[in-house]
Amino acid sequence: MRYKYCPECKKAYIKSSLEGDRCIYCNADCEVIDVRRNGLYYLGYGMTVAGAVCVAAPRLAEIENGTPLVILGLAVAVAGMALVVMGSLRMAKDAAETALARESGK
Question: Buried (b) or exposed (e) across 5-30, using 16+ Cβ within 10 A?
Answer without folding.
Answer: bbeeeebbbebeeeeeeebeeeeeeb
